[in-house]
Amino acid sequence: MEPLYEEYLANHGTIVKPYYWLSFSLDCSNCPYHIRTGEEARVPYTEFYQIFGFPYGPTYPPTKHLTFYELKTSSGSLVQKGHASSCTGNDTHPESMLFEVNGYFDSAIHNNDCIRHIILYSSNSPCNEANHCCISKMYNFLAKYPDITLSVYFSQLYHTEAEFPASPWNREALRSLASLWPQVTLSPISGGIWYSLLSNFVSGVQEASVFQPILTGRALADRHNAHEINAITGVKPYFTDVLLQAEENPDVKVQAALEGHPLNSVFPRQSFQVTSGQLQPNLTLDPRVPVVFVLVPYRDLPPIHVGPSPHKPRNIIRHLNVPQISFQETGDLRKSPIGMPVERVEITGQFASSKEADEKKKKKKKAKN
């Protein structure tokens, strides 16, 4: 194949021009090397915060797109890590560069048949707007390589709200991409994945920061993303909800912050109540209030689907919780209370249907009389 890109060896990896005709541009600070691999893919902590909105929550509007990636074997061994940044001069998104025909991923898999899984950690969910066609390129790429699985994690949804004219196309494209499950999974970045990104893709991170708690604003944004992507695609995402532990936290300030956060209103079935203590008057929301320590492994990622797709969903049997009874009471379960006549009946589908038929006949006879 004739590649579109040019790759150069750097001190700690490689730097890549995704399109060989790109040149230095005053309109884009990253041009022409929008793809970086190995340790060259690390970005400063301040840039990570501005683009991904960690640890305080998302920043609006997104001024730049950044996607970290990992290429892995079927056993989970890392082949390559890197990142792709958007080009503000040519208005090109990272996914569009990576999944281009004869682009970087196409060439990487063509030259290394051990790659079986691609993991993306994106600041924004992929779109399918006319200038980018990111999801269309991803879809065509996966059709070309049916043995490749793709996991997409995102920090915030991109142009899926009703106020954006392109939102219907983006939502429909996300549904189409999610329909490829289990070859494709779409999930928000959450829980331990944040710390994995800090460890593997961010420079200038203090060791203590890796074990800092998830903050209120970020945790609620992650939950909001999980709710929205589920509503758009109908597929339940992989998601670590650290707020479930915070709901039982007796810390008044934490609970008040959760209750007052604007994103909390999008979850009608979720309630955040103070379990002990009294609310302080005029307590203002602080999105920097820690929610809960999440001491999870860096690589706490969902299992990679390698086998064939299931033909139909599994049947789910729900069991009710019955009251706990003592051993002595079990011997008297068949005995009825004194003075109450009991008729023991075995109910089957045939019995129920015949009983309904008899009742209909009785009603017809009464109507005739």
Describe the model.
The chain has helices at residues 45-52, 94-98, 104-111, 134-144, 167-178, 192-201, 216-233, 243-246, 252-260, 327-330, 349-368; strands at 6-10, 13-17, 35-37, 43-44, 66-72, 78-85, 117-124, 149-156, 184-188, 202-203, 214-215, 290-292. It is α/β, with parallel strands linked by helices. The strands form three sheets. An eight-stranded mixed β-sheet has the order 1-2-3-6-5-7-8-9. It is globular and about 90 Å long.
Helical residue percent band: 25-40%
In which order are the strands of the major sheet placed? 1-2-3-6-5-7-8-9
Give the ordered list of helices and strands.
EEEEHEEHHEHEHEHEEHHHEHH
Return Rg in Å.
27 Å
Query: Span from first to last CA?
Result: 88 Å
Number of strands: 12
Mean pLDDT: 76
Task: Give the helix/strand class.
Answer: alpha/beta
What share of residues are in beta strands?
15-25%
CATH superfamily of the domain at 40-233: Cytidine Deaminase, domain 2
Indicate the CATH architecture of the domain at 40-233.
3-Layer(aba) Sandwich
Give the CA-based shape: globular
CATH topology group of the domain at 40-233: Cytidine Deaminase, domain 2
Instruction: Kindly provide the name of the CATH class of the domain at 40-233.
Output: Alpha Beta
Number of helices: 11
**Largest β sheet strand count, sense and barrel closure:** 8 strands, mixed
Low-confidence stretches: 261-288, 290-300, 306-349
